[in-house]
Design a protein that fits this description.
This protein is mostly beta strands. It contains four helices and 18 strands. The protein has a single domain, classed as Porin (Beta Barrel).
């Protein structure tokens, strides 16, 4: 596909402007005269990714992708009323036959957000606040491990419905929502490769609803949070599904990092309900019992480097032999903050994993931040596919050790508030399971490198 596209041209123009107007970041808001009642912003992210030693099945052993994501967002507000919208244009280039290209990477010219909102005061008592929003929107709820608007991935998650955010006088907060997650379209490979523009679809065949409640200073100075999320999925014309009917219950405690002290986050999630054994209407209905746990304990050092050292552990159940179904479903959660990049790597997700790790984060200046992480990778159930690789040994003879993952990221503001560079790297040293399982790609260790520049207007 040709590389000269509107979004690329915009990026190159922004890069050139950044070199000639270093003193002041150009913004659309400033170009409008910075009105009080209207906000306008845009961004262009260009990311080049390369990978060798493919860990996932049915994909080429080496891969490359130039991912370009452009956004344009505007919001008008008068008094307590808000009306807004946002367009995402996500495209990829340099892909070849067998590359990892899907609707996760390509979604051309999509109206992800189109909403109206109202802010109410003292409805639930003195010093309370209520915020209502209806329409198409992006959601980032709780820890974002169940409901999120993915940012590292080239496309994001959109939801159509209603949301209510409540806050009491004691700062206890609650978020209630009823949404229809948007199905990214087109989802057939020929249309994706042509970057065909087609409106994403929402319907009552896929429903996501529930609530999150959080109370500050519940355990000492730590916040406590409870969550309830329901997913109801049904077949629709031309789109057979596994008819997931899942209830997901979660509890989280978090003490935020601060210089010179320890912090901790612990979250446990249990999932129950039912799922079909396959997409056929005659497939057996299986009872679901799955769970996930995350714990992260760290210490933030005082000083200019703003260093934080932490140990972490993530467990997500897999599906073993038996009549039920035990593979944890992360629903619409993000993965980058906890586990690994998405993009063409995308090998580690919140399902069938047992992974301890250690992480070092630094932010020595306002422009620069970085982290490095190392984790061991095991299968929670050796009869199931490892995480999101598709590699499986139903006989269990390949063991449960998948390997070691080393990861690093560096971000730097080339021009503060306008142009930011980022480098991400991953080395997956494959263990016995990823080397010897019957369908494991015989491609050696995995190496992934991504370089990106984001211009924000």
């Amino acid at each position: 596909m040709a590389l000269v596209r509107p979004s690329v041209i915009v990026f190159l123009a922004a890069l050139g402007f950044g070199h000639t107007a270093w003193a002041k970041a150009p913004t659309l808001q400033a170009a409008l005269g910075d009105p009080d009642d209207f906000k306008l912003s845009a961004s262009v992210r260009v990311r080049h990714e390369v990978l060798d030693g493919q860990p996932r099945i049915n994909l080429r052993s080496d891969d490359e992708q130039l991912a370009v994501r452009s956004t344009l967002a505007g919001e008008y507000h008068r008094g307590d009323i808000r009306i807004g919208g946002e367009i995402y244009d996500s495209r990829v280039y340099l892909d070849r036959t067998g590359s990892a290209v899907s609707a996760n990477e390509v979604n051309a010219f999509e109206l992800v957000q189109a909403y109206a909102g109202i802010d109410l005061h003292d409805v639930l008592g003195a010093r309370s606040a209520t915020h209502l929003q209806v329409g198409r929107m992006m959601l980032n709820l709780g820890s974002r491990r169940l409901v999120a608007a993915d940012d590292y991935r080239n496309t994001t998650n959109g939801y159509t419905g209603v949301r209510a955010d409540l806050e009491g006088a004691d700062k206890t907060t609650a978020t209630l929502f009823y949404t229809l997650p948007q199905i990214r379209l087109p989802d057939d490979l020929p249309s994706i490769r042509r970057e065909k523009v087609r409106w994403d679809r929402e319907s009552f065949d896929l429903r996501l609803w529930g609530g999150f409640v959080a109370r500050p200073r519940t355990l000492g100075d730590a916040m406590a949070e409870l969550s309830f999320v329901r997913l109801q999925e049904f077949d629709s014309p031309g789109r057979p599904t596994r008819n997931r009917n899942l209830t997901t219950l979660g509890a989280r405690v978090i003490r935020e990092p601060k210089p010179g002290r320890w912090d901790v986050e612990a979250e446990g999630i249990y999932q129950t309900g039912s799922i079909r054994a396959g997409t056929a209407q005659t497939a057996a209905r299986l009872a679901v019992s799955a769970w996930f746990a995350h714990i992260d304990a760290g210490y933030s050092f005082a000083g200019a480097g703003k260093a934080r050292l932490s140990v972490e552990y993530d467990y997500a159940s897999g599906d073993g032999p038996g009549k039920g179904y035990g593979r944890f479903d992360t629903l619409f959660g993000m993965r980058r903050a906890d586990l690994a990049p998405a993009g063409i790597y995308n090998a580690l997700a919140r399902t069938n994993i047992s992974t301890p790790g250690i992480r070092l984060e630094v932010a020595p200046t306002k422009r620069l931040d970085a982290f490095a992480a190392f984790r061991g990778l095991w299968l929670a159930d050796r009869a199931d596919a490892f995480s999101s690789t598709g590699v499986r040994d139903a006989s269990r003879r390949s063991g449960n050790f998948a390997g070691h993952q080393s990861e690093a990221r560096v971000r730097y503001w080339l021009m503060p508030g306008f142009l930011r560079g980022e480098i991400d790297g991953v080395w997956l040293a494959k263990g016995r399971f990823l080397k010897t399982a019957p369908n494991a790609p015989r491609t050696g260790d995995t190496h992934y490198l991504a370089t990106a520049v984001t211009a924000t207007f």
